[in-house]
Amino acid sequence: MKVLREVGIAVLIAAAVFGILQLNVRSYTVHYTSMLPNVEERDWIMVNRASYAFGEPQRGDIIVFDTPFQSPRPFIKRIIALPGEQVEVRDGSVFINGTALRETYTREPPNYEMEATQIPDDEYFVLGDNRNNSNDSRYGWTVPRDNIIGKAWFTYWPPGRLGSIRHYRYPELAVTLESAVAVNRTSEA
Predict the structure, then answer these.
(1) Is residue 90 part of a domain?
(2) Would you please indicate which residues are annotated as catalytic (active-site) residues?
């Protein structure tokens, strides 16, 4: 009887862990080359669905989301601009609120131009890392917060690609924000 009880407890614990993982983590297969060189076509990735339960998506996060238009599968892209920000593409660079991003993770700089655009509240501007071969926000759509499935976490297949997916932070924007705060404090004095 004691053995049956211990086996039963082990099975219940395993079922609970499996259930929690199913709610928080989901696997996806990447179908396109829009995220090269960082995420490759046919990579199998794990997505943390609970990553934004207690915080908001951040610039530089690679996310999986349902498109705001008809598509047979979710997309994977990098968040470039946040709600309320202005984004522009010119001279081979992406600009956020007038500051050029230093994008060392992209395959190549963009070979297109995009007029300055204000991002609506509760929506995100996303681009593929393969800037010149990606169906992304440069075509006039943004991602509503409710469409974000989760943050790409790691690649688990093929075995040679096993590893975490690198997100990026933009130190050049942190300096700009600190300068703006300092200017605001000075003008208040």
Answers:
(1) yes
(2) 34, 77
